Task: inverse folding
């Protein structure tokens, strides 16, 4: 049986083709900075090996949790899958301030780098500020005291500490 192609109205080419159409070129999910880039989270991850319990009998199982400092800086949250699983009151908070001299030096160094590679932008090294910021994040839990756990939180220039009764 022969089909006359002139008689078929092609409103949508997907109606006839057995496979879907794809745009040519590199897809967003195939790009290196998306596939192999640093995670988009800006909070430290805690690998907690202990089972935590409260007085009401609620338990927090071992696992990987993001530790997030509340905006009012009075609580530390254990977050798993974008849900707050537990909250711990902050016992001590230290916020280190950067001096104007350090900030000026950082800006001067960046401008120097941009000026050096002005005519060769492809040779310019990648900006490492995000990696340095993520390298300064830390969350850990300490079990040295027999009565309580100590939760340490560090993110950039903010350090906090909370205590969890055993």
Result:
């Amino acid at each position: 049986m022969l089909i006359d192609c002139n008689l078929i109205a092609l409103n949508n080419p997907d109606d006839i083709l057995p496979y879907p159409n794809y745009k040519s070129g590199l897809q967003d999910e195939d790009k290196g900075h998306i596939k192999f880039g640093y995670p988009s989270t800006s909070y430290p991850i805690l690998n907690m090996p202990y089972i935590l319990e409260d007085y009401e009998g609620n338990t927090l199982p071992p696992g990987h949790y993001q530790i997030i400092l509340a905006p009012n800086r009075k609580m530390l949250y254990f977050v798993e899958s974008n849900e707050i699983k537990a909250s711990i009151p902050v016992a001590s908070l230290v916020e280190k301030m950067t001096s104007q001299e350090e900030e000026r030096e950082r800006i001067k160094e960046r401008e120097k780098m941009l000026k050096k590679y002005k005519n060769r932008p492809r040779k310019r090294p990648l900006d490492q500020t995000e990696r340095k910021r993520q390298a300064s994040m830390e969350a850990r839990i300490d079990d040295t005291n027999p009565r309580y756990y100590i939760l340490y939180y560090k993110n950039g220039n903010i350090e906090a500490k909370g205590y969890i009764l055993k």
